[in-house]
């Protein structure tokens, strides 16, 4: 059976982050239906009431309906799974630097609140993501961020920086009022045998199509 990575913070809610081996809806909730979106690095969130035939463009999904497995795919961007155990609302967000900077995490929290969740009750887990030591960016990238974000950039070689995407994602979740956040601290770039990495594949001239899958659901 393929390895499924789970967050202690999310407790018993059906969920999982995959390795490069992947996972299916049945791996976390047998008999449930998988729901996915066409991810475009946006801040857009869709509230799922029932499965759709054609995935809409969005980078986060939320639902209060049991039996739907929300799914996102990543290969360096941060997969974020969220749950309010009191309201029984779940969410899944694809948060690359562009989406996180554009507000996809705050939008996900707001969409969950519209279903009865409360930010300070939400628990969020950040799955396998490219880490600080592996994520070199240039001055042009750095200038797109505010001065208050300086702590997420560590000086590297001349004209370049190391960007701490997981810490930035945690910061945006906390700024949105999320009550508890866990970063699983798994570096997609550094762990060749376990994870796909878009950046690593690009650097090595390999196929960049591989993705991890992250899922969460409410039990039926």
Automatic annotation (TrEMBL):
The family database entries (InterPro entries) matched by this protein are listed as: Cu_polyphenol_OxRdtase (IPR003730), Cu_polyphenol_OxRdtase_sf (IPR038371), Cytotoxic_necrot_fac-like_cat (IPR011324)
Query: What Gene3D superfamilies would the database entry show?
Result: CNF1/YfiH-like putative cysteine hydrolases
Q: Which GO terms describe its molecular function?
A: copper ion binding; hydrolase activity; S-methyl-5-thioadenosine phosphorylase activity
Q: Which UniProt keywords apply?
A: Hydrolase, Metal-binding, Transferase, Zinc
Which SUPFAM superfamilies does the record match to this protein? CNF1/YfiH-like putative cysteine hydrolases
Chemical reaction(s) catalysed:
adenosine + phosphate = alpha-D-ribose 1-phosphate + adenine; inosine + phosphate = alpha-D-ribose 1-phosphate + hypoxanthine; S-methyl-5'-thioadenosine + phosphate = 5-(methylsulfanyl)-alpha-D-ribose 1-phosphate + adenine; adenosine + H2O + H(+) = inosine + NH4(+)
Could you tell me the superkingdom of the organism this chain comes from?
Bacteria
Q: Which family does it belong to?
A: Belongs to the purine nucleoside phosphorylase YfiH/LACC1 family.
This chain belongs to the protein called Purine nucleoside phosphorylase
Give the organism, scientific name: Qipengyuania soli
- Encoding gene, per UniProt annotation: pgeF
């Amino acid at each position: 059976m393929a390895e499924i990575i789970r967050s202690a913070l999310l407790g018993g809610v059906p969920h999982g982050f995959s390795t490069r081996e992947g996972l299916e809806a049945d791996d976390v909730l047998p008999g449930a239906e998988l729901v996915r979106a066409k991810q475009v690095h946006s801040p857009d969130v869709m509230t799922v009431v029932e499965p759709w035939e054609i995935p809409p463009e969005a980078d986060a999904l939320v639902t209060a309906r049991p039996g739907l497995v929300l799914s996102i795919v990543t290969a360096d961007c941060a997969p974020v799974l969220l749950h309010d155990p009191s309201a029984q609302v779940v969410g899944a967000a694809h948060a690359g630097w562009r989406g996180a900077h554009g507000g996809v995490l705050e939008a996900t929290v707001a969409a969950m609140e519209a279903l009865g969740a409360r930010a300070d009750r939400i628990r969020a887990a950040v799955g396998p993501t490219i880490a600080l030591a592996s994520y070199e960016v240039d001055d042009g990238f750095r200038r797109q961020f505010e001065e208050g974000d300086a702590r997420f950039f560590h000086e590297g070689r001349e004209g370049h920086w190391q960007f701490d995407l997981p810490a930035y994602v945690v910061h945006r979740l906390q700024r949105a009022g999320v009550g508890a956040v866990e970063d699983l601290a798994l570096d997609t770039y550094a762990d060749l045998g376990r994870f796909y990495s878009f950046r690593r594949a690009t650097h090595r001239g390999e196929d960049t199509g591989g993705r991890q899958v992250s899922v969460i659901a409410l039990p039926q």
